[in-house]
Amino acid sequence: MGDIITDAINQVLRTRHALIEQACEVAIQGGKDGVVVIESPDLFNPTMFYVAVRPEVPYGHLFTFPSMDAFEHWIGNGMPQ
């Protein structure tokens, strides 16, 4: 049973890293935006996350937030570095 859980966790991590890598490649090609990763605060579904190239994030940066609320709060505060 432990191997099934370990395999599932490893697959989620590989998928997450692949999506982040893909977003970074898109951001580099675009030359003006950075990447944001928003984690899921849902303890019952920790595999949910959001990865995107966003103009709010400076080029060459990757910002991670614990929730969409935290990301929106950061935007509301003028996106401090």
Report on this structure.
With 81 residues, the protein is of the alpha+beta class. The protein has one domain (2-76). Helix content is 47%, strand content 26%. A three-stranded mixed β-sheet has the order 2-1-3, with helices on both faces. It is flat and about 45 Å long. The termini are far apart.
Tags for this model:
81 residues; alpha+beta
Short description:
The chain is 47% helix and 26% strand.
What is the strand and helix layout of this fold?
Layout (H helix, E strand, L loop, with lengths): L1 H29 L2 E7 L9 E10 L3 E4 L2 H9 L5
Radius of gyration: 14 Å
The number of strands is 3
Q: How many individual domains?
A: 1
State the helical fraction.
40-55%
> Which strand-content bin applies to the residues?
25-35%
- What's the total helix number? 2
The end-to-end span amounts to 44 Å
Q: What does the overall shape look like?
A: flat
SS-based class: alpha+beta
Could you tell me the mean pLDDT? Answer: 88
Q: Major beta sheet, specifics? A: 3 strands, mixed
Q: Spans of 5+ residues with little confidence (pLDDT < 50)?
A: none
Q: What is the string of helix and strand elements?
A: HEEEH
